[in-house]
Specification:
alpha/beta; Purple Acid Phosphatase, chain A, domain 2; five-stranded mixed β-sheet; about 15% strand
């Protein structure tokens, strides 16, 4: 019998909650295939424990904005935020090994007719294009000039994808869409200020997954990032960020039958802004 496949939402350093969730998963967990949706680290109490577990088990993951932030801080390109809980990772004797593994992870995966991303996809992108564009970022992040990539990664512009974009602007739009997107226009113009749920949708925008004619409608997109949205399940959509670090739940879904597994989580001491 094939091993089941489980997708797990944003952990954000909540290693005790992760261990509790893994204990709930049925069957032979050593054989179970786990895919993480990014934001493995930060704001929770034990980011180092999460990274060591993921690395030692070679768990499949996509990268989230907090994972990229950790890499930028590690590279000396960003200052830690007062709300960060990354000091233990940065001081660990195995930090180089862990973070070299982390920066080799992709921004998107396509498996079992599911597209896995941290935040969202622009409506103009086919699933195959998402993987191709994520690979462009992956090559920059895993290559010898990865620090240069991270130094130019931050910023809210351009707000819209164009095939003619080049160099750092091109990579920045890809990163912003796959790790930060919540709302966009039907033309794919992104908005980054609003972090509340769909009830606070800015005028002229929609949640990215509600854009009519989105080119990834024919497959299931599995994502996290949006804790104020909470668990969402549709025929072509699974949203799994249920606010673990905010005192919500940590959620896993078995992809074969949509069975859901959750553990309640204590709120982190200082989770910072969403």
């Amino acid at each position: 019998m094939p091993s089941p496949n489980f997708a797990i939402g944003d952990i954000q350093g909540c290693h005790p909650s992760l261990k509790g969730l893994l204990n709930l998963l049925p069957g032979d967990r050593a054989a179970a295939q786990v895919i993480l949706l990014g934001d493995l680290v930060n704001r929770g109490p034990d980011s180092l424990g999460v990274l060591r577990w993921a690395y030692s088990n070679q768990v499949r993951t996509v990268l989230g904005n907090h994972d990229l932030h950790l890499l930028a801080v590690y590279a000396g390109l960003r200052r830690p935020s007062p709300a960060d809980t990354l000091a233990e990772v940065l001081a660990a004797p195995d930090v180089d090994e862990l973070l070299n593994w982390l920066r080799m992870q992709p921004l998107a995966r396509f498996e079992h007719n599911h597209l896995f991303v941290h935040a969202g996809v622009l409506p103009q992108w086919e699933a195959s294009e998402v993987i191709s564009l994520a690979d462009e970022v992956g090559q920059a992040l895993s290559g010898p000039n990865w620090r240069e990539f991270l130094a130019n990664m931050y910023g809210n512009t351009p707000t819209q994808w164009h095939n003619s974009l080049k160099d750092h602007e091109r990579l920045r739009v890809i990163v912003n869409a796959l790790t930060r997107l919540r709302f966009c226009t039907p033309e794919g113009e992104m908005e980054f200020a609003t972090k509340e749920g769909p009830g606070a949708t800015p005028a002229g925008y929609l949640p990215w997954f509600d854009i009519p004619g989105r080119k990834t409608e024919s497959i299931t997109v599995v994502f996290g990032h949006w804790s104020t949205l909470g668990f969402i399940e549709r025929p072509n959509l699974l949203g799994l960020d249920t606010g673990c670090v905010w005192g919500g739940q940590l959620t896993a879904v078995r992809l074969e039958d949509r069975a859901r597994y959750q553990v309640d989580c204590p709120q982190a001491a200082m989770p910072g802004p969403r």
